[in-house]
Write a structure and sequence with these properties.
Elements lengths: L7 H10 L4 E3 L5 E2 L9 E6 L4 H18 L5 E6 L3 H10 L6 E4 L4 H7 L9 E5 L6 E5 L4 H17 L1
Parallel strand pairs: 3-4, 4-5
Antiparallel strand pairs: 1-2, 1-5, 3-6, 6-7
Length: 160
């Protein structure tokens, strides 16, 4: 797993790079990643064919249900996949957080704009839009690592 501290310049690119490239999988309505606010965001990029993605999602869902919602953390699963594959996967592995689907044409650029130079899945971004600190993890995310990333962003943003 790899942790990167990204600059505010990259955060600015993130907020502009993908406007209009997402839909809420539940209702197919367009949606954008919030670019302002003091709410911690956990963006988990995944695909139904990705073994580590499939493995981490039940634990992340349970964590969100038990702790994330209570702490008002916005957790979003962003699928880089076909709608029918997402639907089929969610029938066997339901999750407690919203699932969005990437509808753009360049998933490699999407991943790079969020700090994933490898383009590997799963990929998780923990950030607070009004703060210039972001933590990223490539590969399967443990709950311990998720909590450490959230706390790191909180600590850095409280000091800012």
């Amino acid at each position: 797993m790899k942790k990167l501290l990204l600059s505010s310049l990259l955060l600015g690119m993130m907020s502009l790079a993908n406007a209009g490239d997402f839909v809420n999988h539940a209702n197919n309505k367009p949606i954008d990643i919030p670019t302002k606010g003091k709410q911690i965001q956990v963006l988990n990029f995944w695909a139904s064919w990705c073994g580590p993605c499939r493995k981490e999602m039940p634990a992340m869902s349970e964590w969100y249900k038990q702790k994330g919602k209570k702490e008002k953390i916005a957790m979003i699963g962003i699928a880089i996949d076909q709608p029918q594959n997402i639907t089929q996967f969610l029938k066997t592995t339901p999750v407690s957080y919203p699932i969005w689907r990437y509808t753009g044409n360049d998933s490699r650029q999407l991943m790079q704009s969020h700090g994933n130079k490898l383009g590997a899945y799963p990929f998780t971004v923990v950030r607070m839009p009004n703060c210039s600190t972001t933590w990223t993890t490539v590969g399967e995310l443990s709950i311990e690592r998720l909590e450490k990333s959230i706390q790191g962003v909180k600590n850095a943003c409280l000091k800012a």
